[in-house]
From TrEMBL:
Domain MutL C-terminal dimerisation: 463-605
GO molecular function list: ATP binding; ATP hydrolysis activity; ATP-dependent DNA damage sensor activity; endonuclease activity; mismatched DNA binding
Taxonomic lineage: Bacteria, Bacillati, Bacillota, Bacilli, Bacillales
BP terms from Gene Ontology: mismatch repair
Job description of the protein: This protein is involved in the repair of mismatches in DNA. It is required for dam-dependent methyl-directed DNA mismatch repair. May act as a 'molecular matchmaker', a protein that promotes the formation of a stable complex between two or more DNA-binding proteins in an ATP-dependent manner without itself being part of a final effector complex.
Listed Gene3D superfamilies: 3.30.230.10, Histidine kinase-like ATPase, C-terminal domain, MutL, C-terminal domain, dimerisation subdomain, MutL, C-terminal domain, regulatory subdomain
Gene Ontology cellular component terms for the protein in this record: mismatch repair complex
Keyword DNA damage attached: yes
Protein name (Swiss-Prot/TrEMBL): DNA mismatch repair protein MutL
Annotated region described as Disordered, given as residue ranges: 359-416
Source superkingdom: Bacteria
UniProt xrefs under SUPFAM superfamilies: ATPase domain of HSP90 chaperone/DNA topoisomerase II/histidine kinase, DNA mismatch repair protein MutL, Ribosomal protein S5 domain 2-like
Bias (Polar residues): 386-404
Length: 649
């Protein structure tokens, strides 16, 4: 008698559920996707004990026909696919027909549904089998309740983590669904407490304000872009709101949340030199494409996908994120937890007479005016709001006192005026939130050579002094600034070397004494396979017997004082990353040279040297961070200083 046999349905469903239903958040995800696919405009999610005891999802979607009810809990039964070709044109979130069958095999499920709000039905399923089906009163849509999750698979229940962890995963799923479907009103409650509530206005920025708070929401920058195959739209947060992990990078394809290493890398590349190592941005990007370009049938959870023309999409994301911050002021704000700040109106900042030497006077005439944007904004409580309209209110505000007016006028403002000012300012920010989401195609950046047409991205300021031979103290009408002198010069030299190295020829210089390198067998195999690519990068390795190679020449753009070190760094980078990328090599070289050639801490400067450094920094394309992503300049507004010294309450 043969030993191979077909598994009975209950056991097969439990095995399938092992991949589809890993934890309570998996149930929420699958049911939420079904509600969205059903065309719901309102979805309520309620969980008890973080979903372990009960999960209930109620929607106002299309409901389920009576004739379809017997198949609801059958594995691979779905209304979303008919022909083989449909698999390559998927626009729904669900399509495998495994979700309800898997859930019902490891939990007790009660489903009420109606397609017209008049005739309704109730189905009860347990252990993957329908035990009861009967008429019931139900509003249009579907109400599904899942209880006793993993009651018949104790091993799975044993490895469920803390209730806090499970609730966090559920909240994460709902948050991402809410961002990608802002037109749907969503409410999430745990043990009766509201965790999330959106208004279904169709505006993603409102949902992000609800999730991340107004402090982050007002510092979002909208990005849009398209190629012949892809169209992207999203919001990227300023670098100061970075996090310690990639969890806050939310990528969607046609509304489906996905995980993709290459696209995550594209996002990080877009923030290159704006974030330090180990810091990651808050990003929401939805990618619209023809479904035929993406394979979502990779894993039962449908999170992992495979893309066609991935490089094209990678370049588009990098380009648009970089462009988004080109015209933005990225000086980190100081959060003093102020309950309110005074209302300010936009004006142009008129430069006072400079304390610079004659060279700087010639470069920046005292009477010239510099248009300032986003210099400083009022701070608000973290409480989120969804009452955002389309009024056009400027996103950056400045004090009403002019350059020659005494600041005492502001200091003598009454407490009631401040409260009124805060109330009006908050309304303006909320009503004008969209006005600050400038698209990335606003203005082209100007080179340093075109300084006469270049508008500096940081305001004029005059030097006050230096702290510990490391930080420059400067001021203007708006407040006080601290500048890290090493980071400032590092940015200046980085942009210089980046441009210089990028324009060099392929001319080589011969070495008087060849350099010798020894590699392992694995390294030798990589070098032999990429010998031509290494040569294009300027590394001319020649076999010298055994494991040894020699280098007789090098490109003239290598720094003369560090030729051997540069060659070693490039070879090490290639071996470590298993790739040869000339542009990346030159980028890394510019960073290395700028760091080594910049002034260090505890180096005391004269006032005119500090003024010269600030003046050069103002001409940079990205004057806010060093090439490693560390901040260069920090601002304390006059208001913040007065609060610190209790001059105002």
């Amino acid at each position: 008698m043969g030993r191979i046999r077909t598994l009975h349905t209950s056991l097969a469903n439990k095995i399938a559920a092992g991949e589809v239903v890993e934890r309570p958040s998996s149930v929420v995800k699958e049911l939420l996707e079904n509600s969205i696919d059903a065309g719901a405009t309102e979805i309520n999610i309620e969980v008890v004990e973080s979903g372990i005891a009960e999960i209930r999802i109620v929607d106002n979607g299309s409901g389920i026909e009576e004739d379809d009810l017997p198949l609801v809990f059958h594995r691979h039964a779905t209304s979303k696919l008919v022909e083989d070709d449909d698999l390559f044109h998927i626009r729904t979130l669900g399509f495998r027909g495994e979700a309800l069958a898997s859930i019902a095999s490891v939990a007790k499920v009660t489903l009420q549904t109606s397609t017209d709000g008049i005739d309704g039905y109730e189905v009860y399923a347990e252990d993957g089998v329908i035990h009861e089906q009967k008429p019931a009163k139900a509003r249009r849509g579907t109400d599904i309740k899942v209880t006793s999750l993993f009651y018949n698979t104790p091993a799975r229940l044993k490895y469920i983590k803390s209730l806090y962890t499970e609730l966090g995963k559920i909240t994460d799923i709902v948050n991402r669904m809410a961002m990608s479907h802002p037109h749907i009103r969503m409410t999430l409650k745990n043990d009766g407490k509201t965790m999330l509530q959106t208004n279904g206005s169709g505006r993603t920025n409102e949902v992000m304000a609800e999730i991340y708070g107004m402090k982050v929401a007002r510092d979002l920058v909208e990005i849009t872009g398209e190629t012949s195959d892809y169209r992207i739209h999203g919001f990227v947060a300023k670098p100061e709101h970075s996090r310690s992990n990639r969890h806050y990078i939310s990528l969607f394809i046609n509304g489906r949340y996905i995980k993709n290493f290459v696209l995550n890398k594209a996002v990080q590349e877009g923030y290159h030199t704006l974030l330090t190592i180990g810091r990651f941005p808050i990003v929401y990007i939805n990618i619209e494409m023809d479904p035929i370009l993406v394979d979502v049938n990779v894993h039962p959870t449908k999170l992992e996908v495979r893309l066609s023309k991935e490089e094209q999409l990678y370049s588009l994301i990098v380009e648009k994120i970089k462009a988004a911050f080109k015209q933005k002021v990225l000086i980190p704000k100081n959060d003093l937890s102020a309950k309110y700040q005074p209302k300010k109106v936009l004006k142009q900042f008129e430069q006072q007479k400079m304390a610079f030497d004659q060279q700087h006077v010639e470069q920046n005439p005292p009477n010239s005016k510099i248009e300032e944007t986003n210099v400083e904004e009022p701070s608000y409580k973290e409480d989120a709001t969804t009452e955002v309209t389309n009024n056009s209110t400027p996103s950056s505000e400045e004090y009403t006192n002019d350059a020659h007016q005494s600041y005492d006028k502001h200091h003598n403002a009454t407490s009631n005026d401040q409260v009124d000012a805060y109330t009006q300012a908050q309304r303006d920010i909320l009503s004008g939130l969209d006005a600050q989401y400038d698209t990335s195609d606003s203005q082209p950046s100007m080179s340093v050579d075109n300084a006469k047409q270049f508008t500096p991205r940081i305001p004029y300021m005059e030097v006050v002094g230096q702290v510990h031979g490391t930080y420059i103290v400067a001021q203007n009408d708006e407040g006080m600034y601290l500048i890290d002198q090493h980071a400032a010069q590092e940015r200046i030299k980085y942009e210089y070397f980046r441009d210089k190295i990028g324009e060099v020829s392929n001319e080589n210089q011969n070495l008087l004494i060849p350099l010798t390198f020894t590699f392992t067998k694995d390294e030798q195999l990589f070098i032999e396979e990429n010998i031509e690519a290494l040569q294009r990068a300027g590394i001319f390795l020649e076999p010298f017997g055994g494991h040894d190679y020699i280098v007789n020449s090098y490109p003239v753009w290598f720094p003369q004082e560090a030729v051997e070190e540069t060659i070693k760094d490039i070879i090490h980078y290639a071996l470590e990353h298993k790739t040869v990328n000339i542009a990346k090599f030159r980028e890394e070289l510019a960073i290395m040279m700028s760091c080594k050639k910049s002034i260090k801490a505890n180096h005391y400067l004269k006032n005119n040297e500090m003024a010269d450094l600030i003046n050069q920094l103002r001409q940079m394309e990205d004057p806010f961070t060093c090439p490693h992503g560390r901040p260069i300049i920090i601002n304390f507004t006059n208001y913040e200083l007065e609060r610190l010294f209790k001059r105002i309450q």
